[in-house]
Structures are given as structure tokens and as C-alpha cells.
């Protein structure tokens, strides 16, 4: 079983993020869900982003990377949208990373180094017509094309946080398929 450090999206550590983590726990994985927003959740992406800007994006990133301190070095780093920034940074830079799950977002690899570590498998997930993921799709394609153990999954639809069962953007079918692929990824590590 894998140990996963799962970073929440811009609307916070919602009930839907907790449910996602619990699904992985039921499969036998250890899942850590640091709350970068100190219990705050937001009704919209805009509200969450306003909070993150006021709190300081860099400060939140520092807080997120510090959440890995004291944990095992062979973690799977997972992020949902905003959380991808931290998960991807750690997967690319922290020795011993076991894998990465980048959901709803992908940062250009050059942001954190010259290349993706060849021994770190990665899955990237997003919706085809999601306006936010559309901006990240070139980076996702570049990563998927350059890393030996990378998979890119693009789902039909236009919802951003489609994996969060507590939000209006939830897409039950796409979320179920994503979870199936995530379970397979984790089982293969």
C-alpha cells in the first residue's frame, strides 16, 4: 500500500476532498490531508483564490511543503488544482518520491527543475473543456511526453473540480473513472 500526501484545491479541505481521501484509505492506503487554509472552505473558486492571494501564495506553498516534513520520504504526492503546485514541486525535487498524482492542473516542469525525475511515475487528469485545465494542457502534454512513466487522462466535459463530491462541479462518472485509474496507479507502485 502507498502513503499519499494529498493537497486540497483552492476551495479548501472540503467534504468532497475528505471523501476522496477516504476512498483511498478504504483501499488500504495511508492518506495525509494537510489543511493549508486552517479550516476555511469557500463557496467559489474566486473566493478561495482571493483568500489565497491575501494569505500569500508563496506562504501557502511554504506551509504545504512543510507538511511533508517528518513523513516518510517515499510518498506519493497528490494535488487537486491549487494543490498540484505543491505536490508537483515535491515530486520533482524531494528525493525518494514514489509517485505523483496531478489532478485538474499541471505546472510546466521547468518551474521546478530541468526535467521530471525518470524514476517517479506520474498521472495527470483534467477535463478537456475546463478553462483552467486548458491553460495547463500544454504543460501536461509536455510532461506526459517527456517522462518515461507518465500518463495523461483528459476527460470529456468542462468542469474544473469534477472530483469533489461536495461541489456543483462534481461529475460522478468522470470522478469514478479517475478514481479507478488512481487506484490502479497506486496498486502498481
Main sheet strand line-up: 2-1-3-4-5-6
The low-confidence runs, each spanning 5 or more residues with pLDDT under 50, are none
- By DSSP, the count of extended strands is 6
Largest sheet, in brief, is: 6 strands, parallel
Gap from first CA to last CA = 8 Å
Anisotropy-based shape: globular
Tally of DSSP helical segments: 6
SSE sequence, one letter per element: EHEHHEHEEHEH
Q: What does the radius of gyration come to?
A: 15 Å
Helix content: 40-55%
β-strand percent reads 15-25%
Q: Given the helix and strand composition, which structural class is it?
A: alpha/beta
Mean pLDDT: 98
Provide a descriptive summary of the structure in words.
This protein has 189 residues and is an alpha/beta fold. Helix content is 41%, strand content 16%. It has six helices and six strands, in the order βαβααβαββαβα. The chain has a six-stranded parallel sheet, with helices on both faces. Strand 3, helix 4 and strand 4 form a beta-alpha-beta unit. The longest helix has 16 residues. The protein is globular, with a radius of gyration of 15 Å. The chain starts with a strand and ends with a helix. The mean pLDDT is 98.
